[in-house]
Design goal:
By secondary structure, the chain is α/β, with parallel strands linked by helices. The chain is built from eleven helices and ten strands. The strands form two sheets. Strands 6-7-8-3-9-10 form a six-stranded mixed beta sheet, with helices on both faces. It has a four-stranded antiparallel beta sheet with strand order 2-1-4-5. The chain is globular, with a radius of gyration of 20 Å. The termini are far apart.
Amino acid sequence: MACIELKDVSYRYPTSPRKNLKNINLTVESGEFIAVIGRNEAGKTTLCNVIRGFAPHFYSGKISGSVTVNGKDVLKTEIGDLSGDVGYVFQNPFNQNSGVKSTVYEEISYGLENLGVPREEIFLRVDRVIELLGIGYLAGKHPLKLSGGQCQRVALASVIVMEPEVLLIDEPTSQLDPKGTEDVFKIIQMLKEKGKTTILVEHKIDRIAEYADRVLVMDGGQIVMDGSAQEILSDPTLLNYGINVPEVSMLGLKLRESGYDLPQIPITLDQAETLIGTLREGN
């Protein structure tokens, strides 16, 4: 079932000399985990802003086409009325902090309080999210005294607790070390297993290869490639758009160029190990 649908969508920010999105057609099925990749200013964040209604409702600008999320016409629906359908995690988690709460527990509760959710349900939902993300050790800490990785986990928690159907996550690992990056991707995978529809803007191709179902490539405000992670991340065409394929994919492409008849180009370490084992047996 389609959860998100964009038809012939073009958009230009008020101060932009050109269209920031051009003729976007996109259908996202419920429960999909989609990664959006592309060079800077390709239109990735703008695509997220259109889906969550901030463009044009907050940023203004000129938009054409239609945008539907969970059956709602985004262009005719107030941002507040979309908050229960779409959750957004900022690239910089410190920007997501309300600045008015003195503990992480209260920070995670803040959005539910604004919606007037009953107190008992707030406690239930916050406790559940804290357990899900394994951040109980942060509950009593001040939100402004967290590390980047800790703040990112709290930002995710503050959105997940709202229980939106769609999660838009904009480069959540940009400030994280490898361990923090792995933790965040495991959280996103956990949400996928719970049926959440997730659109992730990310540059770390090897992580995308391991976790994403589908990959969109954007360039110049357009979707120029769209397919399964296996299909897109093994395609050397990516290089034309300033995107590197995973290192193991480059290995597979070099082997194929050297005359090896490979059943597929690997995109993950597990696939590469299987491929090398097969080649050894064949020789």
